Amino acid sequence: MRFFTGDDPTDGLVHYVTRERAFSQNYTYFEDDGTVIMESDMKTKLNPGEKRERYTFFSSVRIETMKEYNGGLFILDLKRAPWGCAVWPAYWTTSRFDWPYVGRPSYLLDPELSFDDQNGEIDILEGTHDNEHNQITWHTCNDDKKIGRYGCSAMEWSQASYGLHLNLKAEGHSFRAAIPEDVTAGEPRPSTWGPPSAVLSNTRCNITQYFKKHVVVFDITFCGNYAGNNYNASQCPGTCAERLADPANLIVRAPRSVPSLSGLG
User: Fold this and answer.
1) Phi, then psi, of 45 in degrees rounded to 5
2) Do residues 56 and 214 make contact, with C-beta atoms less than 8 angstroms apart?
3) pLDDT tens digits, 26-51
4) Cα 206 to the center of its chain, rounded Å
5) Which Pfam family is one of this chain's hits (predicted)?
6) Distance (Å, rounded) from C-alpha 133 to C-alpha 126?
7) Which is more confident, 233 or 102?
8) For residues 11 and 205, is the Cβ–Cβ distance under 8 A?
9) CB neighbours of 122 closer than 8 A, spacing ≥ 6?
10) What is the CA radius of gyration of the chain?
11) How far is the C-alpha of 64 from the C-alpha of 198, rounded, in Å?
């Protein structure tokens, strides 16, 4: 995995740290069974209205696969996921140019990049604050079908898809006893799993054109363009900035705990 370092491209109040700092500060570590843990700094105090300097950000972690994918089957084994007021965690895919932040790619700063140089985004597991439902979203650029930068979303009906109930339901996205035998046997057959939570049809969207060369991403951020703008719609007190002012009042309900991610593609 590659550690993305630097300020959050989505304007979250975090600074993504290097691999060395992540492990030395225990933001990332391995449990005895090989499970990967991702956490954020919960000690730094951010005063509302304070000039935003790098040292006033929360330290956090964003990791990405080295390999790029043009498609495939990805099976995530997830024990716990972060949630809580001001928190914005995500499991998603995007190109290494970090759509849609033109001129602010992950690994190559090139202000001449256009939207046509970037290859969309797929949000697989994402939510904010006290949400109880996962939101799956596809984002594209310059699509004549007008999916557009704001994306085409599907909300999962199950309360076990995000937040409290996701973590309570057998420590994962599905009851562990209900994991299909073909998955545990290492021979997955998706056609036998029943209807999916969301589908993007290729009848009106050229999927191979708009979604390609993706890396898989895990990150944890706070406030930012999404969680900062929809804070008033939550049941959380005060403002997002006020919630961050004192870490004692900021409750991140759980770290991200990932036993495994299998990619066939």
Assistant:
1) -100, 130
2) no
3) 999 998 888 899 988 877 766 655 54
4) 24
5) GH16_XgeA
6) 9
7) 233
8) no
9) 92, 93, 94, 137, 138, 139, 211, 214
10) 18
11) 23
> Are 10 and 98 in contact, with CB atoms under 8 Å apart?
no
b/e map of 13-34 (b: 16 or more CB within 10 Å)? bbbbbeeebbeeeebbeeeeee
Three-class DSSP category at 240: helix
Q: Report the alpha-carbon distance of residue 152 to residue 179 in Å, rounded.
A: 28
Q: Which of 96, 75, 88 is CA-nearest to residue 185?
A: 75
Could you give the CA distance from residue 235 to residue 160 in angstroms, rounded to a whole number?
19
pLDDT tens-digit readout, 5-16 = 998 988 898 899
Whether 201 has a pLDDT exceeding 90, the answer reads: no
Q: In what order do the strands lie in the sheet with 6-7?
A: 6-7, 14-16, 58-60
Write the single-letter amino acid at 122.
I
What does pTM read for this prediction? 0.85
DSSP 8-state assignment for residue 262: E
Residue-by-residue DSSP string for 34-98: S-EEE---------TT----GGGSEEE-EEE-SS-BSS-EEEEE-SB---BTTEEEEEEEEETT-
What pLDDT, on a 0 to 100 scale, did the predictor assign at position 256? 66
Q: Token pair for residue 70?
A: 């043009």
